[in-house]
Specification:
75 residues; mainly alpha; 0% strand
Amino acid sequence: RVLGAEHMNTLITISNIAITLQHLSKHQEAEVLFREVISVRQRVFGPDHPATLKTRYSLCAVLYHQNKYGEAEAR
């Protein structure tokens, strides 16, 4: 069964992959996935949904590890 790109379980899986990449210090790859998930979650669930906010926090952590402090603060 295919859930679709905007299904909550699909987004959770992509976020989990991004978290794994982050733990492997593959921050640029994790950043790409977190941005993808944020884009969909903002459109589908809204910018203030807890899942959207949690993913934005994870993106900030990845940006921090890449020394992108200004961008992390802007998020």
